[in-house]
Amino acid sequence: MLSMRTTIDLFAGAGGASIGLRNAGFHHELCVEWDEDAASTLVAAGLPGLHGDVRDLSHYDNLKHVDLMWASPPCQAFSHAGKRQGALDERNGWPWTLDVIDHLRSRGIGPEYVICENVPGMTYHSSDCDLSDHEKCSGCYWEDWVQPEFSKRFGWVGTVILDAADFGVPQHRKRVFLVAGPRPVAWPQKTHCSPDKVNQQAMFGPLMKPWVSIGTALGIDTTIIGGGTNPREPEGKRTYRDITNEPSTTVAAVQIGNAGPFIVDEETRRLTWRECAVLQGFPDDHPFQGKTQASFYKQVGNAVCPIVSEVLGRCVLQTMDS
């Protein structure tokens, strides 16, 4: 009988990726997170959370073996929502991730496989890109530095963009995943699709379920709007639409300003952080820690959807054990 595979999680946040990997069958040895509230959430959830900087290589000195390493480097450096300073951004965690891999390998303890997660903007070229400067263009950085650096260390490197809604999460949340290891990994097969394509998809493969809507997930039968500006603004500036029977738009880390979605009831309101956690796919009893609403929203909005990390983890585990 095979022993349980071990994993560590860098930039672990509130444990979204960790929960998914645990559900897939991995045993966590360490989850490193810089944010104190998120690190406390990890511990409260029964995970080996450590409040610290992933760059401190002493954190890994007591590890004996690592089969899989998950890393979710900060996305602000490459997100369309930020300034997109890319490789030059002081929050760029890709070099730190590689430093940890090299440190673990220098000790002969793995990892065999690595999964890295980031925003799709990581792979996009800037409008003025001339395909020559990976410091200024995130797409060039991805193609000319990130992927080649992983290829130097692993026999196989693959990338895929997955939408959480395609796996039963009540939210459209696209993320790019880089998986590296000694052998190719088969990508997870979608389990859900647009309701009007369910019957069409059945002709070409396994029957899929319709996307889970935000209304169904939250048990709300009133109108939910999203995709535009604050509904409190004058009529001429409103650009939202009814998304009650669709998956939610991407849950953001900060629910302020014009961030949506909004629930239209007796009084129009934004989603609570607990409702956002439901849309991320967190268990109802996930023990988020913190003292402010802003902290809870940040932990939820920055998280990896557990279901997505679980399906990816199962694919890697199947390859490892085959």
Notable traits:
28% helix, 322 residues, single chain, four-stranded antiparallel β-sheet, seven-stranded mixed β-sheet
Taken from the alpha-carbon principal axes, the silhouette is globular
> Could you spell the SSE succession in H and E letters?
EHEHEEHEHEEEHEHEEEEHHH
Number of E-type strands: 13
Radius of gyration based on Cα positions: 20 Å
Q: Terminal Cα separation, in Å?
A: 13 Å
Poorly predicted ranges: none
Description:
With 322 residues, this protein is of the alpha/beta class. 28% of the residues lie in helices and 17% in strands. The chain contains nine helices and 13 strands. It has helices at residues 16-24, 36-44, 94-106, 138-153, 198-202, 214-218, 273-280, 293-301, 306-321, and strands at residues 6-10, 27-33, 49-51, 68-71, 113-118, 156-163, 174-181, 192-193, 209-210, 223-226, 241-242, 262-264, 269-270. A seven-stranded mixed sheet has the order 3-2-1-4-5-7-6. Strands 11-10-12-13 form a four-stranded antiparallel sheet, with no helix packed on it. Strand 12 and strand 13 form a beta hairpin. The longest helix is centred in the middle third of the chain and has 16 residues, at 138-153. The chain is globular and about 60 Å long. The two termini are 13 Å apart. 44% of the residues are buried. The model has no long low-confidence stretch (mean pLDDT 89).
